[in-house]
What does this fold into?
Amino acid sequence: MLSSLDPAGPTHRVKPRDDNLNERCCSWTRTYRTYFPEYFVSQFYSFIRKYLPFIAEQLSMHFSIQLSAYYPDKSYGGDRAYRDMLEQARCADQSGYESVGITEHHLINILMMPAPLQFAVKIASQTQNIKIITAVSVLPLHDMRILAGELVCADIFTEQRLMVGVGRGAFGFEMERMGVPLETSREKFDESLNVLQALLAEEEVSWDGKYYQFDPLTIMPRPVNEIPFMMAVLVPEAIYHCTKRGFHIQTTPLSGDHQHMLDQVNAFNRGKAELGAAGAHQTLSLSRVAFLSHSKADRKRKIQLAHDYYSRFDNVFTGPGIVESGMIKPLPRNMTVEQTAENLTICTPSEMIDKLAPYAEAGVDRFIMNVNFGVEQAEILESIQCFAEEVMPHFATAPAAQAQAS
It folds into this structure.
């Protein structure tokens, strides 16, 4: 089931972009960044938003915090790790972020969240406005007849603030131990998604497939609203095809360059354009590590923490998947700390504005920030709040900016 509702709410722009205007905007802002010191970047964007609102519309973008537990030390305790994430969600809600994202991962100490829907309900009970995205629910690990009912209930319990991101799994160790090797997860994911959509959209559904065979049944209770679905996908051509199917898209360029990001965005825009009015509600989300720093030494320290984090991430994502008693072994990376720094957005507020402008210019609707990579909780909360105060206003849609001002 695909949503006809705008998951970003009434402040989200739904009208098509003016491609010519967007190109002029990109050209002007690139020229400014080339010839003027970064110190004046924030003043420049303030001027644009105040006096040239038709250009500011091209620079609007929503922001989301990815609540992903990083658990390098078991003695810290899962209770403390999840309290930290809940506190981050409350901070994001109070600071005006559009959404938070919840991962689903099992058996490992990175991105650790085996119960995303339960956590979504907990977040909703302690926040007022923020949307809650499962980023992502790993469909091959679930029975769709059970998950469909759980999604309906979670949507009700979160008061329709739920957005369901779905994927086939990413870590070979995790998927193999759970009985769904990555080699077969694509096929099972495709059938699982079809079953899930049918169960949410129709009554008395029967199925005779490779992974599901069952007689007519009806999921109860029935959905109150259409639940918005988001597809996690990396390859540009796959982004195009998923967009044409009506899905919202979540992606990340990982270590790809700026052109790779543009290819991802262009693939989304092609698919959305071909849908015409039917695709007006669709959004593109892009996820990256992002954190504010206040000095060169502070930035260097945080980049080293992120590099250490990725020494574990790489192990299970592209590496051999060496895990001992739930703890992912850190392995030497194939890139230097300096190369890691080039792929992250860890910088001062004015530099952050400058780094994020190309995403907004290209057409990214939602920027998902991964802030959990080993930094202390107090620093995370400070960065979330500072980002909201000093960076987000430069990318706010006009109604959102007015609401914030009031």
Q: What stands out?
A: The chain has 15 helices and 13 strands. The domain at 30-50+61-405 is CATH 3.20.20.30 (TIM Barrel). The first strand starts at residue 62 and ends at 67.
